[in-house]
Design a protein that fits this description.
Distance between the termini: 40 Å
Number of helices: 9
Number of strands: 4
Strand order of the largest sheet: 1-2
CATH class of the largest domain: Mainly Alpha
Number of domains: 2
Helix content: 40-55%
Oligomer: single chain
Structural class: mainly alpha
Strand content: 5-15%
């Protein structure tokens, strides 16, 4: 990695670290920076860095727990101390935790369609026949890798979702037509969820999480269009905007319905469940 590539990452990571009390001292922060850059970890924001990104301090018992379950909304106690309740996650973290679950569903979907097992799906959902030609299989293999990388990055930030294994509605992988129709709906929910996460993170002035969600949603949009292309939809790129800007029209490229921009993580999770996805464990 060149010095030119490392420097912007180094500056960004250092600005994140400044938000954690543990890294407030310049000498502590610089020693940690030297270590992660020397080991090639400049872009792997994990552990205590992830905790700092999400606004908690993993050096305290409370912060360490928050780095796993997600930091929670702060409320003032009568004594003026900050009290965090595990049952009340802050909106940014709630979206991030839900995104981990969504990415697991995405990994299961693409692998099921390929007839491959995954840690996040059930064997009975695997496609029994070949649903895709060789070129389209490559699209789906790439998509599965992309979803898994999204999941890994989100979890490196201390985010997680309580459920890991998901079952799809009966018949989803019985035919190419059924699988592609479901995939388009699934990706539309993913897009709306990440757009909601961007809005919430931006409102909380958490530019790092907003940017991360924006980079992921761009890939989810690619997946939706590729699925439509494989299905023979014309045109596959049928939206001027992905979210709630403007409205569909008869103009070429703008006939598709917009993705719903979800106001909360709970709304996004409910939309996934409404597709008939069943959490198993």
């Amino acid at each position: 990695m060149s010095a030119e590539t490392r420097e912007p990452n180094a500056e960004r990571i250092e600005s994140i670290l400044r938000t954690s009390a543990f890294f407030r001292a310049t000498s502590t922060r610089r020693r940690f920076m030297q270590h992660i850059l020397a080991t090639g970890g400049g872009v792997a924001l994990s552990g205590v860095v992830g905790a700092a990104v999400l606004g908690c301090d993993s050096t305290s018992p409370r912060g360490a727990a928050a780095a796993v379950t997600g930091p929670t909304r702060a409320t003032a106690s009568p004594a003026g101390d900050v009290v965090r309740t595990a049952s009340d996650p802050d909106p940014v973290t709630a979206f991030g935790n839900a995104a981990v679950g969504a990415e697991r569903i995405g990994i299961a979907f693409y692998n099921n369609a390929l007839g491959n097992g995954s840690p996040f799906g059930v064997p009975s959902d695997l496609a029994k026949g070949t649903l895709l030609n060789s070129a389209h299989r490559e699209y789906f293999e790439a998509a599965a890798n992309q979803e898994d990388t999204h999941r890994a990055v989100l979890q490196s930030l201390g985010l997680d979702f309580s459920l890991s294994v998901f079952r799809f509605p009966a018949g989803t992988f019985d035919s190419a037509a059924a699988m592609l129709a479901f995939g388009e709906q699934l990706e539309s929910v993913f897009i709306g969820a990440y757009l909601g996460a961007i809005k919430v993170a931006a409102s909380a002035t958490n530019s790092f999480i907003a940017e991360t969600a924006a980079q992921i949603v761009g890939i989810e949009c690619e997946h939706r269009v590729l699925i439509r292309d494989i299905a023979g939809e014309n045109p596959p790129n049928d939206r001027f905007f992905e979210g709630d800007t403007g409205a569909p029209s008869n103009m070429l490229g703008n006939t598709g319905a917009r993705s719903t921009v979800y106001a909360s993580a709970g709304d996004a999770v409910n939309a996934l469940l409404a597709l008939g996805i069943t959490p198993v464990s």
